[in-house]
């Protein structure tokens, strides 16, 4: 944490992350809260979700959401809620999406890649992938939750 605080002091005035649109998917803990506040102090716009349904510290998520960034996380999310939160964190709406992803599990990146694949399939066949076809429970839940959002995710992120 001292290193992050030093970065704020040394680099804050120059705003090196100005224009960065960062989606984060890390454990939503006090330490992550300090990271988020540092990214913002350095000029970034930040949207965040948790990478784990059990690790969110709700008081931290609430404080960051109130003071700093869009946060989509709470302790004890269901798998479907987890993918909903991840989808919210990567889909910034009509203004585009993130230009940087910070994560430790790869789910935000997976969601974007699967969204692009689903959109390409839709363009070819007029159908979105069947949510029951993916092999893992997690990817099935991702498809079920995000099926409606795949088109907007691709449109908003890949331009």
UniProtKB/TrEMBL annotation:
Q: Which Pfam families did the record assign?
A: AdoHcyase
Residue stretches spanning the membrane = none
**InterPro entries (UniProt xref):** Adenosylhomocyst_ase-like_sf, Adenosylhomocysteinase-like, S-Ado-L-homoCys_hydrolase_CS
Q: Which GO terms describe its cellular component?
A: cytosol
A molecular function GO annotation: adenosylhomocysteinase activity
GO terms for biological process, alphabetical: S-adenosylmethionine cycle
List, alphabetically, the SUPFAM superfamilies matched. Answer: Formate/glycerate dehydrogenase catalytic domain-like
Report the protein's function.
Adenosylhomocysteine is a competitive inhibitor of S-adenosyl-L-methionine-dependent methyl transferase reactions; therefore adenosylhomocysteinase may play a key role in the control of methylations via regulation of the intracellular concentration of adenosylhomocysteine.
List the PANTHER family hit by this protein, alphabetically. ADENOSYLHOMOCYSTEINASE
Q: What is the official name of this protein in its record?
A: Adenosylhomocysteinase
């Amino acid at each position: 944490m001292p290193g992050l605080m030093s970065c704020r002091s040394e680099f804050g005035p120059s705003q090196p992350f100005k224009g960065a649109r960062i989606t984060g998917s890390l454990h939503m803990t006090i330490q992550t809260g300090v990271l988020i506040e540092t990214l913002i102090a350095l000029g970034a716009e930040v949207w965040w979700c948790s990478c784990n349904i059990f690790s969110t510290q709700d008081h931290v998520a609430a404080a960051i959401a109130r003071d700093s960034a869009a946060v989509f996380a709470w302790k004890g999310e269901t798998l479907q809620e987890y993918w909903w939160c991840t989808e919210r964190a990567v889909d910034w709406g009509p203004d585009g999406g993130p230009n940087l992803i910070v994560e430790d599990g790869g789910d935000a990146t997976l969601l974007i890649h699967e969204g692009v694949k689903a959109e390409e399939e839709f363009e070819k066949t007029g159908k979105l992938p069947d949510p029951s076809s993916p092999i893992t429970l997690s990817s099935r839940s991702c498809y079920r939750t995000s099926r409606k959002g795949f088109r907007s995710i691709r449109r908003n992120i890949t331009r």
